[in-house]
C-alpha cells in the first residue's frame, strides 16, 4: 500500500518553502513589512544583529479581513532559536498595523559556538534515553540536509513516525545553549515528544509534548465532586437507551448521529443526517470520499479497491483504534479497510446504539458520530476563518493554498488508554490525530470483597490502563497486603523487590498503596510510577493488583497514563477511603478475597460532542497562533531539567469555548450552568458533574473565577484548571455579543453575536504573540476588533475582561525564555480611562454588570455587591426596600469594591424585591435583587 503523508512529508515541504521564500514574490512583498518589523524590534532594545537574519516561516493573506500575516523566527550563527518568534501584520495597502516579537537581545554574544560534539544519530539515542524510551534500532537517515534545516531519520523502532532532528539554540536563563531538537512520536500516539538535547553533553535539557491531553481531568473531577453528591448519584436516571434497530435501513447517503448542536446522548436523540449536509463552500469534495469526482483521492487514501465505503473523506478519516496499545501502532488501523464502518454502495451509515450493550457493540455508531462531528467542526471553523491558507485539516485543498495531505485521523475507542481524550498537534501538511477513549462507568463498576465482615462488601473502582483488561483476564483471588520491607508506614507501597512477604503474595491479589517511594523517579513518559509497582507485584508472583489512594480520607479515583510494557496481570484502582479500610482488616489479621470485579458498560468519548469539538479546537488554535507551520506556539507545559513547568498559555480555555459554542442549543441562556464531560462522568447535562472545577455560567455566583486564580495554588497551575478562567471569560463575552447582536442558529452565518464572537476568537489567535499569556490574549481580541470592526466592541471586551480580573491595571507577571509563567500575576477590575463602563446583558434575574454586580440573585442570607467603577472617595452601599427605606448600609474602600466587593448579611430581611444602590464620586448606580429564604 502506498505511503501516507506524515511529518516527513511536511518537513520536506516546509524546508523547501523556507529555503525558497527569500527569492519569491511573496518574500519581496513582505520586505517592507520585515523592514518595519526590524525597526520596531530595534526600538524595543534589540541590536541590529538580532534582526539581521530572520527566517520567514509563513506568510499569507486572510481574504475575510484583508490582513496579511507574516511569521518569522530569529536566527543566530545560521541556526534558529527555539521559540524566538515574531510576527508582522499588514492591511490591504501593505501598511503595518501590528507587530510582535519575542527575540533574544544580544543573541550573538549569548550563543555558544555552533559546533556540536554529538552527531544527529547520537542525539536521537540521547533523547530516547532521557525520555525513558527504548533505544532506537536500525536507525538510518532518510532525508539528508544541513543540520540547520533539519534532517530526518527512520522511526528506529521506537517512533510511529520518522524522527526529525535539527540543530537549534535553546534559551536557558541568559544563555543560548546549542541543542539538537528531536521529535519522537510514541507508538501509541499518547505522547509526541519534542526534545532539546544538549549538543555537547547529550543531557535532556527540556521537552514538551505535541499531544494535548485531558488525562488529568477525569480523576480530578471525581475528587472535586465527592462531597457534593455520592458517586452513585452521578448515573443518569435512565441511561441513554438509543435504538436497538437502525433508524433508516433504506436511507441512502446518510449518517445516523447526535447532530449539531446536541452535546451528548443526555441532551438529545439520534437523527438521520444526509451526507449532503456537507457545506459545498467549505467541503467542496463532500464528506465521504466517494462523493468527490473520480480521481480526487488516490486509492492509498480512498481505499476504493477494497470495495468498501468507509467513514473517510477529505476532512477526516475516522476508524476503530481499540487494538492500539503501547506496542500496537494505530497507523496500521489508519491504513486498514476493515477498521471503519462500511456504509455500502448506498452510503447508509446507520448503526444501532444501546448504552447498556457495551461500547464494542456500539462501535460503528461511535465511529460514525465521530466522523460527522469532525466534519461539522471543520466546516464551521472554516466558515469563520480557519481555511486552507490558514492551515486547516484537509487531504486536498481546492484553492491550492496551504499544504494539504493532512485530514484529521479520528480514532474511536482507542486501546492505548482509558478515561481520556487527546489531540496530536501537527504543523500544516501533517495529519493531526484525535484519540477518543472509553470512560469508566463509575457507578456501574462493582468490586465484590468477601471474608472478614469488617471488610466484606461492594466497592467502586476504576479500570487501569496497565496490562490486560479485567474483561479479558478476570480479577479474582486471595487479597494480600504487600510488604516491600523498605517503605515507611508498613511497607505496602511496593517500592522494592523482592517483597518481604513474597511467598504470601505469590498466587494472590496484591493490595498496594499509592506513592511512598521518594527514592524512585517518576517515569517521564507517564509522570507516575504506578506501572513500576505493578511490575514488582508481578515479579513476586501476584496474579493481579489493587492500587489504592494514599490519603485515607479521600474518594480519589485516579490512574496515570498507560505504560504497559511487560505487564501481564490485571489491575484496578480504588479510593483511599476504601483502600485503608481493607488495609486495616488485613493488618489486624483478617482475611479477604476478591470475589469479582465487574465493570459497568463504558461511556464512549466519541459520543460526547463537546469533548470531540474541544479536541478539534486544539488543532485550530495551534495552527492559527504563530502560523500554520508552527506547532510550538501554544506550549501548555514543558519539562526543563526534570521539572515540569506550567505556563499561562490558554489552550484548554479556547478548546472549552469551542466545545461549548458548538453545542449551544437555540434558546439557551448564558447563566444556565454548562458542564464539560458530564456524559462521560455518568452525569446529566442539567446537574453535572463535569471535568471542570466550576460549571460555565455568566452568573458569578455559579462561576466565580477571576484572573487571580491563575497560579494561585496547585490546582490553578495545571493547564486545564487555569484554562477554565480563560474559557469562562470568553463565554461571558460570547453572551454579551449575543445580547448586543442576537443569536443566529445558522452556525455558518456572519451575523449574530455568536458567529461574530467565534470569528473574533479565531482572528485574535492569528494576531497574538507566540505562547501568549492571558493579557496577550485579551489584547489580541481588542486588536482584532479594532482591525476588523473599527473597535465597535472595545467597550464590551474591556468590561467583560475587567469583570474577570483582567482589567486595565492587571499585570501578566513574569515571562521567561519566551514563556509566560504563573508568577507575579496581578488581577485588576478597572477600565482604561477612555473606556466607558457599560451595563452588560442579564438573563433570568442574574445581574451581570461591569457597573454594578449583586450576587447571588436570588440571595438568601448573604449578598455580595461588587463594582469596577472608579471613585475618588470610598463608596456608599445601601439596600432599600420598595418603599425607599434603607434596610442595610455600609461604606467600603474603592479598591475593595473593585476587587472582592462587600458581603452583606441579608438573613434578617424579609423575602421580596430590593434595590441596591452604590454611590461613587461619579454618581449613583442601582440594580435590583431578590431576597428569598
Automatic annotation (TrEMBL):
Ranges annotated as biased composition (Polar residues): 333-342
Highest taxon above the source species: Bacteria
InterPro entries the record matches: FTP_domain (IPR011096), Fungal_virulence_M36 (IPR050371), PA_dom_sf (IPR046450), PA_domain (IPR003137), Peptidase_M36 (IPR001842), Peptidase_M4/M1_CTD_sf (IPR027268), Secre_tail (IPR026444)
Disordered: region residues: 320-342
Listed CDD domains: M36, PA_subtilisin_1
Keywords, ordered alphabetically: Hydrolase, Metal-binding, Metalloprotease, Protease, Secreted, Signal, Zinc, Zymogen
Gene3D superfamilies in UniProt: 3.10.170.10, 3.50.30.30, Neutral Protease Domain 2
Cofactor(s) of this protein: Zn(2+)
Cleavable signal peptide: 1-27
Record's keyword annotation contains Repeat: no
Protein name: T9SS-dependent M36 family metallopeptidase
Taxonomic source organism: Hymenobacter ginsengisoli
Lineage: Bacteria, Pseudomonadati, Bacteroidota, Cytophagia, Cytophagales
